[in-house]
Amino acid sequence: MGQEADKRHLSNVVEMPAPAAEHNQIVQGHRGLGRQPSFWIVAATFGLFLFAAAAPSPLYALYAARWRFSPVAVTEVFGIYAIALLVALLLTGSLSDSLGRRPVMLLALLIQLGSLLLFLFASDVGWLFAARLVQGIATGVATSALAAALVDLQPPEHPTMAALVNSAVPILGLAIGALTSAALVQYAPDPFHLIYWLILGAFVLAAAGFLLIAEPSTRRSGIRLVPRVGVEPAVRPHFVAALPSLVSGWAVGGFYLSLGPSVALQLAASSNRLLGGLAIFLLAGVGALAVVAGRSWPPSRAMSVGGVALIAGLALAVTAVALTAPTLFFAATAVTGIGFGLSWLGVLRTLVALAAPTARGALLAAIFIVAYLSFALPAVVAGYLVSRIGLHDAALWYGGAVGLLALAGLLGTRLVSRRSVAGATLEGERR
């Protein structure tokens, strides 16, 4: 991917301010809105993409009842989005380095508008699969270009702003999207269409905003659609140790965005869709706040606190499901959100700090492959369990299994960290 691509990917997880000279180069000679309004248009659009991704979640149960498809199909509809996003991200992640940020972002917006039209005209589950597939492609194409544009447009007086926005805004978009969609489904007319019309209008405004933005980057590189994926030998023990934490955190997110609303409604013995959106809002919203709160923590601290919170939250959630205690379930979801946000932040910053600069792009590609597969595939397994043993028992088994994974991740990362410290101490004594 090259040095510029490495910087783009790293903007999601570490604070990498661009030099002042580069900032001057980016804006000089270009006409359009100033740096600050352009930055916030890009940030809002980034959040809007994830807002749209979460919007269908409160509707899944309604779709299933209307078109009579199984919980397995619900999770497959969700999973295809994550897989499409991953493939598009890997194949087009460096595209904006060669074509420019604006053309790639406008292309992503056009694809996203197509996905919303598919949602609006959906007449069976096949349409949902197509809509989520196209939506995943759009978000994957947009992600790297938007993240890179935020680094390009970052205010010189706030050199950590891009890292913070890249980390928190997408998760916050998921939270607000789920809650807004649930509220509209419950209280507004035409629940199957209104949310998509509103999102479509928002994306039209976003596209108009991008037409007013000057191209943020003046750098160009050759087009490269073949991703570099790999983990250096020196980083592999830490990568393997972090895998359970990585898988468990994203598996929780996948479960909540696909089946979480149904679990919340069943526990509350209610048909109020707002409760289902609230479950996703708590997980993602608290996760975003945790990322902001822990952004200056050492990576090891973020991983440790995140791991403990994830284990505690999942234990409380399993207890809540077993006791049919909805209030405890929502409290557990908030604790789990802390664990999800901090674990993700800690894993990324720990592994990236260990990698050589020339290997960071390949490492991050490997991390995102694991993350998005964990987001999608365990949720499909959960859907299969629901069809076999019911939603209540499936939630218990799933929560317990993911909790054990989180525990393994916490123990593994601590063990590897202690060995690294011991090895460094021994090497220092030898010298």
Task: Give me the secondary-structure topology.
Elements: H1 2-10, H2 20-27, H3 35-54, H4 60-67, H5 71-92, H6 95-99, H7 101-120, H8 125-153, H9 161-187, H10 194-212, H11 236-258, H12 260-268, H13 273-293, H14 299-323, H15 326-354, H16 360-389, H17 391-430
Question: What is shown here, in short?
Answer:
The protein is mainly α. 80% of the residues lie in helices and 0% in strands.
Descriptors:
431 residues; mainly alpha
The tally of strands reads 0
Strand content range: under 5%
Order of helices and strands: HHHHHHHHHHHHHHHHH
Name the helicity range.
Answer: over 70%
Structural class: mainly alpha
The number of helices is 17
Architecture overview:
This protein is an all-alpha fold and 431 residues long. The chain has 17 helices and no strands. Helix 3 runs antiparallel to helix 8. The longest helix has 40 residues. The chain is globular, with a radius of gyration of 21 Å. It starts with a helix and ends with a helix. The N terminus and C terminus are likely disordered.
